[in-house]
Amino acid sequence: MFLSTEHSQRDQTLPRDCTFRPSDWHKLAAFWHPVAFGHDVADQPVAAKLLDLNLVIYRTSSGVTVADDQCPHRGVRLSMGRIQGENLVCAMHGLHYDGQGRCTRIPSVQDSARRIPKKLCLNTYSCVERYGIIWTCLKSKAVWPLPDWPQLETSASNRHCVPTDEWQASAPRHVENFNDIAHFPWVHIDSFGGEEGGSFPPYKVKTTKYGLTFSVPYLEGFNRFPDGVEGDEREVEYTYQLTFPFSTLLLVKPVDSDYVHYFADSVCPVSSNKTKIFQVFTDSQGVKDPDFWLNDALTINNEDKALVESQQPFELPLDTRDELHIPADKMARSYRKSLVSKFGLGLSD
Ligand code: FES
Ligand SMILES: [Fe+2]
Predict the structure, then answer these.
(1) Nearest ligand to the C-alpha of residue 80?
(2) Average pLDDT of the residues in 219-226
(3) Against a cut of 0.85, is the pTM above it?
(4) For the domain 34-137, what is the CATH superfamily, name and number?
């Protein structure tokens, strides 16, 4: 009911009710994670949750600010406030905070601007807006760069965002599903199709400077590509470029044309068993029919969601002796091993 009078005894580094193992939380906090689409942060503050930490995201003329969603005065959620001019204004007593998180006005104090103590400021985090997504890092120094996706560094009108969704699943379970090929002829037979229950040739996983990559051929059962090539089926090559820890760019290229569809999937680990999905796509021709591709993405996600949410344990096993592996799991095995060997995730403290 009461916090201790001993200020220094409180653990201020982990979020309250943290659902992650403490050592994993600290390691994950040092990566960039997507927290909102840029277009969703306009003239009102937006609430987000990353690694069990409640955040407020707001925009002023100096750019986007990400901070703890807690007013330093009496702890009210700042995302319940509003933007007024260049300030975020708390809904409770109206304290004003500028784009740097500094308090600039206390309305109940006359001439407050001269009397505001320096420490009256929000706890802010580094943030970057790229590919239409706002990314934040909870530690002062990121251990790994943002995904490098030049294909998505295009005009906003040529880049399309799939509405966000939350999955009751852990982020790495979603990532493995996105990079899993063996489920296509079972789960996606009604969307992009293929030979029901078909097999895959062996493939190689390569290590890159950002993560892992591999390519596989596939015969899609429908022709969904707007490149003028006739035919009911299309032979394609899928290339996956995974950036640690939770972002993947998928290149879908029909082998008989120059057309390429670029589909980026990056997920926010909201809690250890809750994941918010951010997906952005474009193509080599300027996306002539974005609604088609939007519906295509929503259908495919829907086909995957219930299955991934059913996976037990929801935590990704990082000891490769756990769970059985089939040859098509080469990517998943490399992913699990890398999370441990490169970043120490899953290791005991
Ligand atoms: S709680 Fe925010 S201004 Fe008082
Ligand atoms: Fe899938």
Answers:
(1) 1
(2) 94
(3) yes
(4) Rieske [2Fe-2S] iron-sulphur domain (2.102.10.10)
Q: So what's the pLDDT on residue 10?
A: 53
Backbone angles phi, psi at 203, to 5 degrees: -135, 165
To test the ligand 1 pocket, which listed residue (56, 69, 78, 93) has its Cβ within 8 A of the most ligand atoms? 93
Atom 4, ligand 1: which residue's CA is nearest? Answer: 93
Query: Domain residue spans in the chain?
Result: 34-137, 150-343
Tokens for 63, please give them.
């750019």
- Ligand 2: distance of its center to the CA of 10 in Å? 43
CATH class for the region spanning 150-343? alpha beta
Task: Give residue 348's pLDDT.
Answer: 82
295 CA distance to ligand 2 middle (Å): 14
- Whole-number Å distance between alpha carbons of 144 and 244: 8
User: CA 69 to CA 124: how far, in whole Å?
Assistant: 10
Helix ranges (DSSP H) in the chain: 22-28, 171-178, 184-187, 290-310, 330-343
The atom number, within ligand 1, closest to the CA of 75 reads: 1
Q: Which residues form ligand 1's pocket by a CB distance below 6 Å?
A: 71, 73-74, 76, 90, 92-93, 95
Q: Quick one: which of 207, 226, 198 has its CA closest to 291?
A: 226
The per-residue pLDDT of the chain, averaged, comes to: 95
